[in-house]
């Protein structure tokens, strides 16, 4: 079972992947209430950004394949490959 701090950090990252500003505000606030350091919150944010970027890149490729358009260039690897 996950402890409350781990769940709070997962929620921070999920807020980023969902592009939900109000969720991030709420979840980062909850993480701080639990005593989680800003550095750890920032790490969760960076992981969320990495996942979001991978998903967006894959969606761009999928969209291009649906309309027979050139494939967009992707920078680096995707965390979801």
Can you describe this structure?
With 81 residues, the chain is mainly alpha-helical. It has 3 helices and no strands. The chain has helices spanning 4-17, 21-33, 38-66. The longest helix is centred in the middle third of the chain and has 29 residues, at 38-66.
Continuous helix count: 3
Structural class: mainly alpha
Looking at the structure, what is the overall shape? Answer: elongated
Proportion of helical residues? 55-70%
Which band does the percent of strand residues land in? under 5%
Distance between the termini: 28 Å
Rounded mean pLDDT is: 88
Main sheet, how many strands, which sense, barrel? none
Q: How many strand units?
A: 0
Report the order of strands and helices. HHH
Low-pLDDT segments, ≥5 res: none
Cα-atom radius of gyration: 16 Å
Write the layout of secondary structure elements.
Layout: H1 4-17, H2 21-33, H3 38-66
Keywords:
81 residues, mainly alpha, elongated
Overview in brief:
The protein has helices at residues 4-17, 21-33, 38-66. It is mainly α. The protein is elongated, with a radius of gyration of 16 Å.
